């Protein structure tokens, strides 16, 4: 079934904005084609990786759209909404409806502690204490409001490796332990946060190795609970430590300044 319109999420643009122009154009055209007609275009490997993530959102929206269409057809065949037997009888207020149907009742979020236990630094133990209420229920669970997302593990691995090629160590697989950590982060912040974090890492000289120890972050380090949050909060934005090179630059600047001061204080020959 063809559609005349569809929702375009800002997160899609953010996820592909740094790709080459020809790849982005290919993805944009594929989004329009698939969202309006349901037809899949043949894509090059890099474009296909990014599009597979976007396709999940399109499929979800299309499913909701079709359920609305079917519901409207069903109501129409029954002559519309049945009239109240007593016109004066007050009606109960109905919940708002929209393109995506009635909002779901809030449900108790899944416990994502099982994902975090393997990925919390020893230094984060005090954070875990703060996040625990007197009843022993984790406040972090209360914040995990995002429903479970479908994740293309192979696509995520390829996206990471292509994004950080030559910058960070590549990964060869996503095992059960990594899946737990990734699911925990997606449950906390949503799927788009993964793209946001990757972009923030890409823009951080410190995380890419420009520091005193030439240390670079890794895939597993990124998805640790505390680290992921710090990256999202901007703690590593453009960060560069006071490296030896920086200190040498400072010393050199001070030396030049001292020489200029000495020259200016020397008596001029008459």
Automatic annotation (TrEMBL):
Name this polypeptide is given: DUF6291 domain-containing protein
Start and end residues of each stretch annotated as Disordered: 70-143
Q: Which Pfam families match?
A: DUF6291 (PF19808)
How far does the signal peptide extend, from start to end residue?
Answer: none
Lineage of the species this protein comes from = Bacteria, Pseudomonadati, Bacteroidota, Bacteroidia, Bacteroidales
Annotated source species: Bacteroides xylanisolvens
Top-rank lineage group of the source organism: Bacteria
Q: Which InterPro entries match?
A: DUF6291
Acidic residues composition-biased segments:
112-122
- Pinpoint the DUF6291 domain residues: 5-83
